[in-house]
Every structure is written in C-alpha cells, then in structure tokens.
Amino acid sequence: MIRYSGIKIETCENVYEPAEDTFLLADNLEIREGDRVLEIGTGTGLVAIKASLSSQVTATDINPHAIECARRNAELNRAEIRFLEGDLFEPVEGEKFDLILFNTPYLPVSEEDAGGEIIDAAWDGGPDGRRVIDRFLNGLKEHLNPGGRVQMVQSSLSDTEKTLKRLEGLGFDARVAASERYFFEEIVLITARDKI
C-alpha cells in the first residue's frame, strides 16, 4: 500500500507502480475547480484520484490490468472517476476536455529490447522514446476545449526541446514547469496552454 497526500493506493501485478515521474505530475497538477479532466495512462489511478478532488475526471489506459487496478483504488478512496480502456484518445473519440494529463511512455527502447508484455506500454517509447509522445501530440488539439491545457511528463532522453517546439507549432504556450535530475536523465513536466 502506498500513501500519498491522503490517498491510499494498492499496487497491482502487471501495472506500473507510482514512481518519481508519477509524483512529479501529481505534485504539480494545475487544476481549476470544475475542470473536465482526461488522464491518459492512469496506471494505479493515483493522479486521477488526486485530480478528482476538484474536477470531473475520465481516466484511460491501454492496459486492462491498470483499468481494473485504478477502479479498485478509486473505490478505496471514494473517488468518482470514469475509467475507459483503450489507446490514447480512442476511448474518448469526439469528446473535449479542459485539461489533459499524461505521464508518457518516454524511455527509448530498441526493437530488440522490447519486452512485449502489457506493462511495457507504460515506459516503452520506441527507439527514440517518441513513438507514443508524437502520436499523443497529433491528437491533442481535437480533444481540448478552447484555452485548454495539457500537463505531460517525459524524459530528456526523448528530446524535451522537440516536444516544446511541436506544442508551440500546434498553437500552445509551452514550458517546463518542473523537473528532477537523475543519474542519466532529467524527468520533466511540460505544461502547455492553448493560445486559442
């Protein structure tokens, strides 16, 4: 059992456990009262549960074990969250949100090193670490309300500057809002607002 800011989280087999990147996002959430929030890649549900304290939250994950784990943790914490299984924006096709949260799979993983297990989807970013990040950015605008925001976590190993430039090219004001340095990488939280 993990305890974080009054939230109790049970970890589950085949589900990414909350780690430094999870807490970087959870510690720096920029949620406004009443926001309609989407969290992609919810894992154990910790970030979605914290976000649900002041907003309406939909949480998705490609991993069915994560959806079940997050649902149990939401019940444990009496949090009302809509959980949907699927890849990126597929489960919320046609819907728009005020804030989108995503702790992206950002680690560069070669095709030879790819494990092929469902839990690997939590960190496997493909050979350059950007396979999922770029797909996420491609669908972002069509799922944000005007003036909407995004908070996403990634590693310096997957080219933070490239993400910032892509966001700016899509019409966002984007910045690194928080970061933590580790032995071989810097984990960053990027916050971006649609300039409308």
From TrEMBL:
Query: What are the EC numbers?
Result: 2.1.1.-
The record's GO molecular-function terms, alphabetically, read: protein methyltransferase activity; S-adenosylmethionine-dependent methyltransferase activity
The answer to whether keyword S-adenosyl-L-methionine applies is: yes
Which residue range or ranges hold the Methyltransferase small domain? 22-167
Which SUPFAM superfamilies does this UniProt record tie to the protein? S-adenosyl-L-methionine-dependent methyltransferases
Gene Ontology BP term (one): methylation
EC class: transferase
The UniProt keywords, alphabetically, are: Methyltransferase, S-adenosyl-L-methionine, Transferase
Q: Which residues form a coiled coil?
A: none
Q: Which GO terms describe its cellular component?
A: eRF1 methyltransferase complex
By what name is this protein known? Class I SAM-dependent methyltransferase
